[in-house]
Amino acid sequence: MDEVFADGEERTRESNEWERLAARLHPGVSVRLPLSRIPSRFYAHAKRAFDIVFSAMGLVILSPVLAACAVAVKATSPGPVFFKQERWGRAGDRFECWKFRTMLVETPPDMPAQDFADKAAFMTPVGDFLRRWSLDELPQLANILRGDMSIIGPRPVIIRERRLIDLRIPLNAEAVRPGLTGWAQINGRNLVSDEEKAFLDGEYVANMSLAFDARVFFRTLAVVASRRGVDRERGN
């Protein structure tokens, strides 16, 4: 009986925590809390078809931009054009995530950008520009075409960020393909805590739909244009 009460108290505490985060992230707005549900099979097939079509179109249409970024990286810094890093994928599977390299080759590996005391010291001459306009993420269109990722979904987590992974698992955020952009990216991006990121990723899974994906996509364009939330405040 004591175990039953303890479990109930734990669930109440978790519910109160999610409600607190919801009030902070969406003030004055009624939101659906993470429910750990998986969307319908129809939605999953439609989403994958959308990913294939739009990632292929993106690679073709943006090929001049991709080529220009590759030349800029190669011409301004010795080392490879692409940065490849193992990330957490769907259901805990790992995959190689591709980006344009924005940091020097001697940069400590597998360290989140926000953890550097002086990130600028490791940045390539064009790295800051590529990051601010999210151009470094464009090679992930190939990851989407391969099936490693989706256009919309929780961002793929670096392997060493175990705390964030553990926070996301109970909310089922690991049960879907990681995304090029996601709900957390348009609600603070790198300015939110791990708890808030996990909550937003779980909230996305609880509300997944074609309409919600469209909402995230178009708001992403606005966020990229404004460059909000690219980095934590300069003083931190």
From TrEMBL:
State the superkingdom.
Answer: Bacteria
Pfam families registered for this protein in UniProt? Bac_transf
Q: What is this protein called?
A: Sugar transferase
Which family, according to the similarity comment? Belongs to the bacterial sugar transferase family.
Keyword Transmembrane helix among UniProt keywords: yes
Alphabetical list of PANTHER family matching this protein? COLANIC BIOSYNTHESIS UDP-GLUCOSE LIPID CARRIER TRANSFERASE (PTHR30576), UNDECAPRENYL-PHOSPHATE N-ACETYLGALACTOSAMINYL 1-PHOSPHATE TRANSFERASE-RELATED (PTHR30576:SF0)
Span of domain Bacterial sugar transferase: 47-224
- Keywords assigned: Membrane, Transferase, Transmembrane, Transmembrane helix
Protein's UniProt keywords contain Transport: no
The regions listed as transmembrane in this protein's record are: 49-73
Q: Name one GO molecular function term.
A: phosphotransferase activity, for other substituted phosphate groups
Q: From which source organism is this entry?
A: Gordonibacter urolithinfaciens
